[in-house]
Design goal:
Number of domains: 1
Radius of gyration: 20 Å
Distance between the termini: 26 Å
Low-confidence stretches: 277-296
Largest sheet: none
Number of strands: 0
Mean pLDDT: 78
Structural class: mainly alpha
Number of helices: 13
Order of helices and strands: HHHHHHHHHHHHH
Helix content: over 70%
Length: 296
């Protein structure tokens, strides 16, 4: 396959993956999960309003005492909202978001390759909840550790090295995260489509990266960009408040979270097109696919 042909295939695969994200089976899973995230932001935003006190008070009991005490006062609770929501989302994500990713990948792979019904994919995702959650935990954990450790190194750079700081913050760090996510992009689709275990699905995903490095990186770029935006919102809550007021912080956090969820769905959808050809000839990059694709 020549370079032009490869580029055309990647463009077509990206457009197909975006179209797949609008399938009703995907929306059925995405909307309730997004609504849950929005309700958490609303509850944190409304605190200390009486209607949200019970739930938020129970949540804040899990945080350090000084953070919980500061969160009981306006406008400190809005300034702390990005951090509190970030940790809450991380824990919920490790527990449940893997199932959402698995369901989305299952819906797309079934309809894209006509393997089975979308309802069957949901049952498969539920049955393999623990396994897919482990893969998602590895994905989130690897990126989260990178994003927690790297800033400490970046902020140790002398102030006069502004260019190096920007290079590390917006090129090197996102590049590492993109590589990690690219290496894991097709692990959950392999689990759902073929019933592979944790080790086999991770190995298949790494082999997919080796076969299609450019396409794998394209898969992860939107998610990394969304994470960068979310990080900027968290780090810039002070400037956001200074320019638009503290009440602008919750909408900014919610907007960044919706962007992240859309990127997660694309990552799950696009990953189904990277399944290694030697597992089953359904890769979007196979020269002669053995299974006819079905229109969404």
């Amino acid at each position: 396959m020549g370079l032009l042909g490869l580029i055309n295939r990647i463009i077509g695969w990206v457009l197909d993956s975006i179209a797949a994200c609008t399938h009703r089976g995907v929306v059925v899973w995405l909307v309730p999960w997004a609504a849950l995230q929005a309700s958490i932001v609303w509850a944190l935003w409304s605190f200390p309003d009486y209607s949200a006190q019970g739930a938020v008070s129970a949540l804040m009991s899990l945080f350090p005492e000084d953070t919980a005490a500061a969160f009981r006062h306006y406008p400190q609770h809005l300034e702390l909202l990005p951090s509190v929501f970030g940790w809450t989302r991380l824990v919920l994500g490790l527990l449940c978001e893997g199932l959402v990713v698995a369901a989305v990948a299952g819906v797309v792979v079934r309809f894209r390759h006509d393997l089975a019904s979308a309802r069957a994919c949901s049952r498969s995702g539920l049955n393999r909840w623990f396994s897919v959650s482990l893969v998602w935990a590895v994905s989130v954990g690897a990126v989260q550790v990178t994003m927690l450790v790297a800033p400490a190194v970046i902020h140790s750079i002398p102030a006069e090295s502004a260019k190096l700081f920007l290079l590390l913050r917006f090129v090197v760090l996102p590049g590492i995260c993109a590589g990690l996510l690219a290496a894991l992009a097709s692990a959950i689709p392999c689990q759902i489509a073929f019933g592979q275990g944790l080790g086999a699905s991770l190995g298949a995903s790494v082999r997919a990266l080796a076969r299609h490095p450019l396409a794998s990186l394209v898969t992860s770029v939107p998610l990394v960009a969304a994470l960068v935006v979310a990080g900027l919102v968290t780090d810039s809550s002070g400037p956001v408040a200074a320019r638009w007021g503290v009440e602008a912080i919750p909408p900014a956090v919610l907007g960044a979270e919706i962007l992240r969820l859309c990127a997660v769905v694309f990552w799950a959808s696009a990953g189904t097109g990277l399944i290694p050809e030697n597992t089953l000839s359904i890769s979007c990059f196979s020269e002669a696919p053995a299974i006819k694709e079905r229109s969404l």
